[in-house]
Structures are given as C-alpha cells and as structure tokens.
Amino acid sequence: MAYEIDRTEEQWRQELSPAEYHVLREAGTEPAFTGEYTDTKATGVYQCRACGTELFRSDTKFESHCGWPSFFDPADSSAVELREDRSHGMARTEVRCARCGSHLGHVFRGEGYPTPTDERYCINSISLRLVPEENSGP
C-alpha cells in the first residue's frame, strides 16, 4: 500500500531510534508496563511518533490495566488503518498510522470495558508522542 509519507527503510532507520524502528516499522511490541504513556493522565493529543499525525486524544484514553496505553476510539477514523494480523498463531486486528504505515498496536472488541465503543485500541507508547494541552488562564 502506498502512504502519503513514503520513506525508504534506510530513511526510517536514520530518523527513528532502534527501539522506535523495531515497533513502528517491524511491528514489534514494547514490554508491558514499561511505556511512558501507560499510566499518563495528562490532557492532550497523541500523535504518531514517526510522522506527527494526530491519532488519539486523551479524553478517549482509559485504564485497561493491560500494560499499554488504551483508547476506546481514534481521534479520526481515517487517521488509522486496520489490518488483519494472523501472526503468532492469533487472529488480531493490527492498527497502523494511515499516513505513514507505522505499526501502532492492535484493537480488540467485545471485552466488556465500560466505554462507549466496547473497543480497546492497545497502543505501544513508543509509537506515540503526547502533545500536552496548553493551560489557558492565569
């Protein structure tokens, strides 16, 4: 698939740290409970770490206690691409950035979390960059 942001793998290797490259470009997974945004409660926008596209907002983040940041809905459904993933002997739905094709994590449905969508976008912290909402007022 062609993406708006189309870089060679060598260009991605130069732009991303080895850990970022492993997750974003090789569909790796960071270890559970180690990501910088797993327990973050800050208000703001979560962007793709590779290209800066707005993916999720803090008002859709919830505590799933799964070890990775969880969101019940993307900021814009066209910002993410969903793909069938049959790796590791499982049938899952992979979540990628629709602008650059970077791996973000997986989405799970029907788990019973008390959210409006009954979906859990389980996203690697290293795939995201939080842009905090600026405080307005005195």
Automatic annotation (TrEMBL):
PROSITE patterns on file: MSRB
Gene Ontology MF terms in the entry: metal ion binding; peptide-methionine (R)-S-oxide reductase activity
Domain MsrB positions: 9-133
An annotated GO BP: response to oxidative stress
Listed cofactors: Zn(2+)
Enzyme class of the recorded protein, top EC level: oxidoreductase
Catalytic activity annotation: L-methionyl-[protein] + [thioredoxin]-disulfide + H2O = L-methionyl-(R)-S-oxide-[protein] + [thioredoxin]-dithiol
Gene3D superfamilies: Peptide methionine sulfoxide reductase
Pfam entry (one): SelR
Record EC number: 1.8.4.12
SUPFAM superfamilies, per the entry: Mss4-like
One GO cellular component term noted in the UniProt record for this chain: cytoplasm
Keywords for the protein's UniProt record, in alphabetical order: Metal-binding, Oxidoreductase, Zinc
NCBIfam families: peptide-methionine (R)-S-oxide reductase MsrB
Name of the protein in question: peptide-methionine (R)-S-oxide reductase
Organism: Streptomyces carminius
Organism placement in taxonomy: Bacteria, Bacillati, Actinomycetota, Actinomycetes, Kitasatosporales
